[in-house]
């Protein structure tokens, strides 16, 4: 039986404000909790006009304050952008405010461009220290040792669960070596999905946090009451990927009738590679897609991106996905 979760970017829609985006995310989380989703993660990205989750720990608190049982966390914190000690304090504080509900997913990429990385005042080579920084962060979140002179307060003894996130074999190998749960970013970089999962499971070494491998994978699912409506709603995400290819920094656009009038063949090809792990359709098509993906990957958890313009249609998408997943799991 696979768990079901949500990845949120707090996207700003054309005609709406950044405040709207953050409050829409909170409203979605409240609905997701009622639908039975396990966790709701937000991702750190910088210098992106359509994304409002750069101050990730603050957004997590906003979401967690509006929910009661849903696990809320980072999917993820780009650790090279931060001192591990600061992240321990931030997530220790979140755990103190929302006990037992906070997750900490960690990524090695900067989540931005090199110019913005300089604005963050971080060393571009800090990604090379990722494994050491993860273990340092884990130590700050763990029990205080005799003679320890630096303590994260709050943070110490919280044991906030750490996840390793990635889209290559590096993250899979690291998660396996240190016994962390692993999340693969197949919702935008699916090429190494099967190899990464195989490496992670084959090389996994049990740890105090994780006794056996646990693999979460990202998947784009646009669900609606009919296949035709889902295809129409999916054009907003497809336009976003076309704009990415063009280097255009647009807000999320309303859907259009025919995506082929918007993107070129080259943009379509690039988007198709990035969106290869996607399911678009009504309930039956979504059910078949989920069943096939789980049969292929044996994932323990699906983290869904359902990127569309209309908030109510988006909530309906997540409701359909949750209902379909119950039938897939036989619950």
Automatic annotation (TrEMBL):
Name of the molecule in the record: Luciferase-like monooxygenase
Keyword Transcription: no
A GO molecular-function annotation: oxidoreductase activity, acting on paired donors, with incorporation or reduction of molecular oxygen
Keyword flag Oxidoreductase: yes
Keywords: Monooxygenase, Oxidoreductase
Domain Luciferase-like: 16-292
GO cellular component, one term: cytosol
UniProt cross-references to Pfam families, sorted A to Z: Bac_luciferase
Family listed: To bacterial alkanal monooxygenase alpha and beta chains.
SUPFAM superfamilies: Bacterial luciferase-like
